[in-house]
Design goal:
The structure holds two protein chains of two kinds.
Chain A lengths: L3 H18 L9 E4 L15 H10 L4 E3 L6 E3 L2 E6 L5 E6 L13 H12 L17 H5 L12 E5 L2 E5 L7 H4 L10 H7 L16 E7 L3 E6 L13 E5 L4 H9 L5 E2 L7 H5 L9 E11 L9 H9 L3 H9 L4 E2 L24 H10 L11 E6 L2 H18 L3 E6 L1 H9 L5 E7 L6 H4 L16 H12 L3 H18 L2 E9 L2 E2 L3 E2 L15 E2 L12
Parallel strand pairs in A: 1-10, 1-11, 14-15, 14-16
Antiparallel strand pairs in A: 2-3, 4-5, 5-7, 6-7, 8-9, 9-10, 11-18, 12-16, 12-17, 13-17, 19-20
Chain B lengths: L1 H17 L13 H10 L6 H13 L14 H36 L4 H15 L2 H15 L11 H31 L2 H8 L4 H13 L1 H15 L3 H6 L6 H9 L3 H29 L7
Helix pairs in contact in B: 1-13, 4-5, 4-7, 4-13, 5-7, 6-7, 7-9, 7-10, 8-9, 10-13, 12-13
The chains are: A alpha+beta, B mainly alpha.
């Protein structure tokens, strides 16, 4: 026994090394990118995150797909469509050569079945509300109509014709059906294997430009080009590795050593250095997302609009952008990012500019001249060096400008979300990424009964305007309603916008077909590699 | 052991649910109806004792069901994929720790009060004091960027094993070196060692044949819990080197309130710790003539 131990130890070490090295025999991928955290699932119906979106966009395809440059919806599974004059009825004509990876046709019935599943209460789809624009859909999800799908406005007229009936005009509906939660799943596959077994590489049937080769948890997802995709002639990558890397420093290390061609984010600390790189491969571009603070308007002193306005006016947002964010973000004076103007004719309503005198005057008017008598205010943020730095700057700015004392409190992510939801905060850090290019994705958060409205703020005029905007078929009037609503929001200030995010992708110059856009969406089907120098290090992994 | 596991299970079960927030909390608040649907789906709407009985049943059947956060996988699958990775990295780290630690400890005990001793023990103190993400950072700068010997991150080749193995093993090596030195010094002052010297044996034989076996005992008792810890992976090292082991799951499961995965990991860790400590106790019988196995 005694003499057995050393041998055993040697054997264990050898086995461990051999086992570990046995992973290394993968053929290299054409294109490798760092996708962030391990994804939750590849089932389109139940996810909400950006890393999930990148994979699902590669595996599945909806009625439309977004142009990688302009984000315009283009024909995909639907070759064409008709929209009725009242903009309420959409008739999609599916293309004949849209095929599943088991070489069967993608039919209108597949969409009816998939959307029924997506809306079904038992699926628990987080994005289900995105389809509630359809007649009867909300009632179906909330169980008001029990398992009777015939009253929902989604019909297959024949094998290749899908008709959708909306409750009110939705100008971005064509974009919406190209958004990944609305992608179809194969009913035979899902029925046969059940969830989640159908998502395993050996079972999954999909209809997108790529197929799932394998998944290694927290290591990588390997995608290979599909030979049944209708537009396969325009897909140029054959093998893609999506690495599950959560640390941005590790991403940068992999990028710098030539083992990743695209990383989706970089460490904040090195942003100024990266921007000076001669390669010019780090160029942050505007992103449809806003960094803001929410204010709990139910408790004094923040129930007074003048106090909220004073606090907002006393923030030097430029300093925050220059000192902390540092990637060329724009200071925000509206909730809707101003860059939206490049895509849609909407001009966000803005709140006042940095103005200490006016802030002091408002605070005095509210009864706290020079901050005297003002109860202590607390900023809540989720634990992160960045959020902390911003909160500390605010603390200093408010102290200097208004004489207001602010405490800081950080909580770990889930606890923080919970505090926000239960209104156990005064001022809290928040961020919001637009789901689609329309002011609605930002502004409907703050109607009275929105689940995203944690401010306790309620304004009947605001609710009315958002409702009008959502019902209005005329584009000009619709956007005017939104503008008026945002004006109220920026006057009442239950939210204090800080800055608009930028996308911080870093991508090699030999990666083509990769375009900066406001949603930071870069479909893998459009990407190709060109002129990857022989001098560049070959990546084995 | 079953009782230990049951106690751990119970405590973890209630602690997890006592923390604010649950597995369904996310930045995008769910519409109340959708949240209700999800709660039903995961049985979170049931009274807590029903959930407890359900989960206990799952544990007994050795199937904790699906993870909340990594919804496509069963807890068993996640552990089955992650554990071998963490374990083989751990074994390599242990190899570094033992070879470096034992050598350093023995050398500095034999050469006590010399410059070698001081240098080695200083290094060991630094090794204990420096958190391993600092060691990892320095190593990456040195051996990935300045002198590109090893890949920056990833898993699957021999090269990818060296840096994380070393960084993970370094603090353990430092502990082992100090324990070894202390143990060796104590033994070297004992009568039977003096006898061995008196018989005219060379230092080498005395140290390696006669002293080592007794002197190594403190190291062995340290090894039990250390091995359990090292085998289940290190969050920091796995994060920095993008290694698909169990370490990262621990933290993510806790922050994401992934009840099922967190429970699976806690139980695995308990089992390992228990097994390793038992193994250490048994090994005493072989190493120390004063202990007899009943």
């Amino acid at each position: 026994m005694k003499s057995f131990i050393p041998y055993f130890a040697v054997a264990a070490v050898l086995a461990a090394i051999i086992w570990a090295v046995s992973f290394g025999t993968l053929p290299p991928a054409d294109f490798t990118f760092c996708n962030g955290d391990e994804i939750k699932t590849v089932d389109p119906a139940i996810v909400t995150g950006a890393p999930e979106g990148r994979i699902i966009n590669a595996l599945f395809e909806g009625l439309t797909r977004w142009n990688p440059k302009t984000l315009e919806p283009e024909p995909a599974v639907a070759a064409s469509w008709d929209i009725s004059d009242d903009k309420l009825t959409y008739t999609f004509h599916l293309r004949k050569n849209a095929r599943w990876s088991d070489d069967t046709q993608v039919t209108a019935d597949d969409f009816v079945w998939s959307w029924r599943r997506f809306l079904h209460p038992a699926t628990g789809a987080e994005y289900a509300y995105e389809l509630w624009y359809i007649v009867g859909a909300e009632e179906f999800t909330t169980g008001k109509i029990k398992s009777d799908f015939s009253s929902v406005g989604i019909k297959a007229l024949d094998r290749q014709t899908l008709q959708v009936q909306l409750k009110h005009p939705v100008p971005y509906f064509l974009s919406l059906v190209g958004f990944y939660p609305m992608f179809p799943v194969n009913q035979r596959c899902v029925r046969k294997h059940g969830y989640p077994a159908w998502t395993k590489p050996e079972n999954i049937v999909c209809n997108g430009p790529f197929r799932l080769k394998f998944r290694r948890i927290r290591d990588r997802i390997r995608l290979v080009k599909s030979d049944t995709y209708w537009d396969r002639d325009n897909v140029r990558l054959n093998v893609i590795d999506a690495l599950a890397v959560s640390s941005s420093t590790t991403m940068l290390n992999l990028y710098m050593t030539g083992r990743a061609d695209w990383i989706t984010t970089v460490p904040v600390e090195v942003i100024p250095e990266l921007m000076k790189r001669p390669e010019g491969d780090f160029t942050p571009s505007p992103f449809l997302a806003v960094y803001y603070y929410v204010v709990n308007t139910t408790k004094p002193p923040l129930d007074d609009k003048r106090v909220r306005q004073a606090l907002a006016l006393a923030i030097d947002k430029q300093q925050i952008v220059d000192k902390v964010a540092r990637a060329g973000q724009q200071p925000a004076r509206s909730l809707v990012p101003t860059e939206i103007r490049k895509y849609i004719d909407y001009i966000p309503a803005e709140c006042g500019q940095y103005n200490i005198e006016e802030a002091g005057r408002l605070l005095a008017e509210a009864g706290y001249p020079g901050g005297r008598g003002m109860p202590k205010v607390e900023i809540l943020y989720n634990t992160s060096e960045n959020h902390k730095a911003i909160a500390e700057l605010l603390q200093a700015q408010w102290k200097r400008a208004l004489g207001v004392d602010v405490r800081l409190r950080n909580q770990e992510w889930t606890t923080y979300l919970n505090s926000r939801r239960q209104k156990k905060y005064q001022i809290a850090r928040a961020g919001w990424i637009g789901d689609y290019v329309d002011p609605n994705t930002f502004l409907d958060m703050f109607v009275t009964d929105s689940p995203q409205n944690h401010t306790g703020w309620s304004n009947t005029e605001y609710d009315r305007l958002i409702d009008f905007a959502q019902q209005e078929p005329d584009e000009k009037k619709r956007l005017a309603y939104f503008h008026r609503a945002e004006r109220i929001l920026m006057d009442e200030m239950p939210v204090i916008p800080i800055y608009f995010y930028v996308s911080t992708s870093m991508v090699r110059s030999y990666v083509k077909g990769f375009y900066p856009n406001i949603q930071d969406v870069h479909p893998l089907r459009a990407i190709w590699i060109e002129g990857k120098g022989e001098g560049g290090r070959k990546s084995r992994n | 052991m079953a009782i230990t596991l049951w106690v751990i299970f119970t405590v973890s079960f209630f602690l997890m649910r006592a923390v604010p927030g649950g597995p369904l909390d996310r930045e995008r608040s769910l519409a109340p109806e959708i949240e209700k649907n999800l709660r039903e789906r995961y049985h979170l709407d049931e009274p807590i004792w029903r959930q407890y009985v359900r989960e206990l049943g799952n544990v007994v059947r050795l199937d904790l069901g699906y993870s909340f956060r990594l919804a496509d996988f069963r807890v068993g699958e996640i552990i089955a994929q992650g554990f071998p990775v963490s374990a083989s990295l751990g074994i390599v780290a242990m190899l570094f720790a033992l070879s470096l630690g034992l050598t350093a400890g023995i050398v500095s005990a034999v050469r006590r009060q010399t410059i070698v001793d001081v240098a080695l023990m200083l290094l060991a103190t630094v090794g204990i004091a420096l958190p391993n993400f600092v060691i990892a950072g320095v190593m990456i700068i040195l051996f990935v960027f300045i002198w590109p010997l090893f890949p920056a991150a990833g898993w699957g080749t021999l090269g990818q094993l060296v840096l994380p193995g070393f960084c993970l093993g370094a603090p353990y090596a430092a502990y082992i070196a100090r324990l070894m030195r202390t143990g060796m010094l104590e033994v070297l002052s004992q009568d039977y060692i003096r006898t061995a010297y008196a018989k005219g044996l060379p230092t080498r034989t005395v140290v390696l044949r006669h002293a080592l076996k007794t002197a190594v005992l403190p190291v062995v008792s340290f090894l039990g819990p250390a091995t359990a810890g090292i085998l289940t992976g290190s969050l920091v090292i796995e994060q920095i080197f993008a290694i698909p082991g169990l370490g990262a799951h621990f933290i993510q499961a806790a922050t994401g309130r992934d009840y099922t995965l967190a429970m699976g990991l806690v139980l695995i860790y308990t089992t390992l710790l228990y097994t390793m400590n038992t193994l250490v106790d048994i090994s005493y019988a072989y190493l120390d003539p004063r202990v007899k196995l009943e």
